[in-house]
Amino acid sequence: MGKAGRFACIFTPMALTIASLVCLIIVGLGGTNKNNSSFNNLYFFRANTSDINVDPSLINLPSNDITDKLGNITGGTVKAALDIKDFYHVHLWNYCDGDFGTNSTGGVSESVTYCSPHTNEFWFNPVSVWGLNNTGVDQFFSKELRAGLATYKTVTKWMFIAYIVALISTIAEILVGFLALFSRLGSVATTIVSTISSLFVVGFALTSTILYATLASTFNSALKKYSIHGSLGHSIYVAIWLAVAFSWAAGLFWLFSSCCCSGRSDRIKGYGDEPGRRRMRHRDAPYQYERVESPIRGGLGYGTPQQKFQGGPGFQAPNAHHAMPLGNVGQQRGTAYEPFRHEGA
After folding, report:
1. pLDDT band at residue 203 using 50, 70 and 90 as cut-offs
2. Is 31 left (phi over 0), alpha (psi -120 to 50) or beta?
3. pTM for this entry
């Protein structure tokens, strides 16, 4: 297999690695442009607050700006009093909020009105986002919700780090992969980098999926009485798990290319034909053994089938003038019979 074959062998894992990188980049585009509906759909978690209502016990809270507004309102007007939007999308770097509307066909449409600044290790804090700080309202959140938010804040840091490492190692995998075009040693190095990348990609995928599935469940159980509903996104998880599939498939092909798909050409190195192989034998070895004719077989070489002769009085075998009695072999040659001729290189 020559360089062309080596290139064909490397092309598949390289294409799979690039596909994995594209999926990871798509994940990071969520929430980067509020005017782009495709980017807005790349969210991990949605908090639907369009039907929020207030427990009457909130009215007994100490007086503050929030509770004073809540004291004279009920039902759907709570959203306006607290300036709460219909939905909140949680992305990798930030959150975006907006309102539901009706499109031209009578269906429900979404209009994103605000996206928060990008933050590393971002986590969605409903108390801060909904402006409930120092109001005492958050004390009505259940213990389950408070514990869930604390765990969510901690695990988000690991999830963000896993994403960054997965992204960087996938880029490194592509760069190192070019070395695999020239040797199988390059494929071994790429396989090592690919293994690291794949581990962090699957770590990010598992962490994000389990984390936000747990958060959605916690929201639905702890905030049900306030008519707040949590749900998972769709598009972003498709991109994440496609990145996992592409990454692991690329790793398998990199491993295959490290033990197969040699870039050497047999014809270029002299192995392509019989004369070439003969030249290689004479070049590489100091001497060779070649078969010679056997005096016992009447001058016939070892590769020639021996004829069956009919014996009897007066019968003379073919080529008898070439034959030599066994007893005279050593006397004629002066040495013991050697069936191979020794030649120098």
Report:
1. very high
2. left
3. 0.70
